[in-house]
Amino acid sequence: xxxxxxxxxxxxxxxxxxxxxxxxxxxxxxxxxxxxxxxxxxxxxxxxxxxxxxxxxxxxxxxxxxxxxxxxxxxxxxxxxxxxxxxxxxxxxxxxxxxxxxxxxxxxxxxxxxxxxxxxxxxxxxxxxxxxxxxxxxxxxxxxxxxxxxxxxxxxxxxxxxxxx
Length: 165
What we know:
The protein contains four helices and three strands; from the N terminus they run H-E-E-H-H-E-H. The protein has helices at residues 2-26, 58-76, 82-104, 128-162; strands at 32-35, 39-46, 114-120. Strands 1-2-3 form a three-stranded antiparallel sheet. Helix 3 (82-104) runs antiparallel to helix 4 (128-162).
């Protein structure tokens, strides 16, 4: 569990630090080109979810973040191996980072907007927390899919070794 919570703490700290820097240095300014206009840093906020879905529903996303956080805390008590624990930490840290925005960057409890600042090509603007949730979710699916595949092959392999032809 230390791997999960340590990873989550690191993600949360980096996410909040980058958002603080963006708010203090980019708010009210034009985008900063990093790699031409393909990769930019730009200040924006989002009250909705990924791709600005359900804009104006921060309460829904705040509650969903709390459900995800609770699920990860519960699952991390039994999760193995270390790679899965770290991936759970990525997702947990990202969910906490955006939940903090919804809690503290608005006019009421769970009414805040998430700070986004990375623009890559045609993708909507996102932040470090978003990246950690997406990458963590993809890695978790990959690891769990691999574990299921390996579990499904183990009995056949054991049976073929136990029974001579």
